[in-house]
Amino acid sequence: MRVETGIKNFDDNIEGGFPEHSAILLKGPIGIGKTTFCNQFIYQGLKQNEASIYILFNARADDIKKSMKRFGWEIEGKIIIFVDVYSWQSGELITDKYTIINPADLNEFNIKIFKAINELQDKNLKRCCIDALSTLFVYIPPDLALKFVSSLFAKLKAIKITSLITIEKDVLDPKTVAVLESLTDGMVELNYDPIKMTQRLIRVDRMKDTKHPLTWMKFGIGDNGIMVV
Amino acid sequence: MKISTGIEKLDEVLDGGVKSNSSVLLLADSLVDKSSFVQHILSARILDNDKGIYITTSKTPTNIIKNMYEYGWEYKHLVFVDCISSTLKEKPKSKYALKRKITKLPEAFEETLKLFKQALKDLKGFKIVIFDSLETFMGVGAENIAEEMKELKHLFDDTKTTCIFLLTDWGYEKQEIKKICNAVDTVVNLGTVEKKLLWMNYFQFDELPRIFFQITQTGVGLYVPKILITGPFHSGKSSTVHALSEKAVSVDRLGTTIALDHGYIEKKGIVCDIFGTPGQERFDWILKILSRDTWGVILVVDSTRPETFKRAKEMLKEVKGYEIPFVIFANKQDLGNAIKLEEIKKRLGLPDVVGTSATKNEGLEEGLKLLFDKIFKVK
Questions:
Q1: Closest listed residue to residue A132, CA positions, set A197, A63, A85
Q2: Mind listing the domains of chain A with CATH numbers?
């Protein structure tokens, strides 16, 4: 069984989708389309009546819903929990039980993620997105953050969730990225063409149990989301 | 001298409380809200006129106060050593605060300790310190942290300070944890167990049994996930459930319970879910289902109908009442034709019989306390 990303012409290149119960790292510069990739991945699951958890570091749930709508991805009535690690910055009173109050408090973060998992565990919970994990390292010493991430990935795998984790390029130091890579089962990289700067490129660096090309492929973002050319 | 933690059962397992002028480690797994747990203790100490110092590395002082306020805990004159606000680009209000974000961990640790020691010197009288939490600095090495903690011990003696360190175990090496544990006088474990998608928190000292708790609006309360109330038809089980619990629901038909009663008790630092079973024999299969994982049993018998005692004993056997803690409520003691308690004890041949009246709400609390004592028999 493969876990489809829903991205046209991309799934075909990785045997139909991500390997089941894997954790995939998605790396790329700002504005390249990492969040759109995540949205598409989540929507693909929701469309198939899977439940999802979406952990947000750089946007509110409403922002995500709005950008999904632009592509015609309607998630109203679908089973999804947004864990919001973004809204605390506004200083508003937080009442939602899945909104993090202290971004540096991994204990709170962990408890809230597990509450979400608990709520969805018997509702066909299959996918999880973390966008963007690199933001976590702004508030938390890297040693501790990596400990946490490693325990989180292990748990997600144990309960048979396929997760997609994004990191901003050049935000983290290379050592941290190397550890993150070792904790995941695959890495997909997005980048701009160094010559023709407006051209977006995608490449599968590695993916366990998957035969895939190592070349850069062109992709664009159209009316129906990301499409590999 | 021992000082109370404000959590009765914790005091009991610690033989009267925490030693004053000593250090305690709360070693928590990642699913326990250790901060709230320790804030309950902090509140109890402040109410006892200790000065409170809160070293925070992951929650802003504002959020800590908000949390304590919501639980109704005492935080007056609480002094913060604020090591997080600057990281979050917020202006720290406390006198003892890191003024800027320090990216180098050893330096941040050193600065934090400096602020901590300064606060200890500035404040007079008995002090309670919360260090929330150590994992922020684990990157400097357990050995280094342990060494500093050992050194602090002398300072605690001189400054009349009891310090509670918090550490969440994010999967550290056993050796690392051991080093930290050895640097304090007392270690209490905070853990969770998962049971059918239900996470239960517990605290544990030494090799003593785990004590389950829940943090509710009244603070840290011991948690008994399931108590079963059973007994023959029409003995007053539902009335007992409703008398014990303000918000009880029953699944019944014309006043006879056909599936279960459910109630929730929050009293005297104990939180408990109670389930009442049907009494009729044709529902014995439900009895068997309900009796799974139960922590204690209340057997309700009708004091006016001794002919039902045999059935009552059978029901107790059905729910394995002989192996788990149980008490017997000799109900309807308020009625004129009720048999005397002594006589009931003799006829049943079982210990721990309490005279009750569910309708008049008499004897119930006493009986419940007896059951809780049996369940939490620590030593």
A1: A85
A2: 2-228 (3.40.50.300)
